[in-house]
Amino acid sequence: MLEKIIEIVNLQNKWRREECLNMIASENVMSPLAEKYYISDFESRYNEHDVVSHYQGTKYANEIETTCINIFGNRFDTQYVDVRPISGAVANLCIYRAFMKPGDVFISPGLTAGGHVSSTRYGIAGGLGLKDIPMYFDYKKMRCDVDKTVELIERVKPKVVMFGRSMFLFPEPIKEIKEQIDSKIKVIYDAAHVFGLIYGGEFQRPLEEGADVLTASTHKTFPGPQGGIIIANKELSMDLWKKIQRAIFPGTISNHHIHRLPALAITALEMNKFGKEYAKQTINNAKRLGEALYNLGFKVLAADWGFTESHQIIVDIKEFGGGAVVAEELEKNNIIVNKMALPWDTDYDATHNPSGIRIGTQELTRWGMKENEMEYIAKLIYKILRKKQNVKNDVIEMKKEFMEIKYAFSSSKY
Length: 414
Ligand SMILES: Cc1ncc(COP(=O)(O)O)c(C=O)c1O
Description:
single chain, alpha/beta, Aspartate Aminotransferase, domain 2, Aspartate Aminotransferase, domain 1, seven-stranded mixed β-sheet, four-stranded antiparallel β-sheet, 16 helices, 15 strands, about 40% helix, binds pyridoxal-5'-phosphate
């Protein structure tokens, strides 16, 4: 049994790290230095705290947490940062608890327009008794429809408007909407997917555009350890920030997985140095991949708008058998993507075999791939889906050339 467990880990490491093109838009790899300090004594410890720690032995745990808070606080120019949420969904949960009570109505993107399940009745929001109403979405432009959404907000008077999606091609109209709605309505921006692009200064700036609070995962385009973060606008009142912190502890979290914090701090310092270049290349790669697939005859969404301004592209592959079938087919060739419901899918199709796939370029960018590689990958996908060829060996050969993580500090010195 022991051998089996070790074998499973080794097989995973070899397959996904050495032999695959990992293009799930919500994944990434940490730098060698962050990974080196991911495992430490912190993995065995607790540090439940509100203002003071409730356990002894926490002086270094407090120091590493404060270090994280300071790095992110400096980057986002705010005193309000909390790194205890253990994932993006948990960060959202804490915000819902802070700002709403059962029965309250809030506006969110909605599942078929790329909203995450945590902000719907099927997920955390539903579990808390909240009622989500989807904002209007312009399917051609793949963006929120501002006028109709403002009218909706005026009509239903929600407690919260939540921006940010899992299918996230273009910035959200935070400023345009915020300016037109009651200032008492809280504006939350779920940056789970685009946090690394925002950190690198290459996507929108949600807090400057009027979001009260930003929630995020720390492991998607932000290439840190799996975890979550909450960052609030510096103009938020201290009372509201305290509410958020109480919703975190004792409201939601006990053990906040302290071992991830050194890796989070290291990643943030790496992003301070390399984040702009990494975010820019990630977006350029996504645009080029979209263009290359489009030129090969694929139905890449938002072609009239440059395909994307983020790390993702969305391709309608219904003609090849649907998202579930195509994602399986690509996996047989070591190209890892995920199926994606498109706005026009029925509920049944959306949950079984949706019409789309979502492809992300952030991890391949970390491995050093650029526009030429995106062109090559588009051709591989063409060979798999159009020509019915198996290109697994080509994928493995290609990946061999990209075995070093870029945009990172050297780990040998530390
Ligand atoms: C928009 C959005 N919010 C929240 C989450 C949940 O993040 P996590 O997996 O870190 O809990 C996701 C996950 O993909 C997401 O896409």
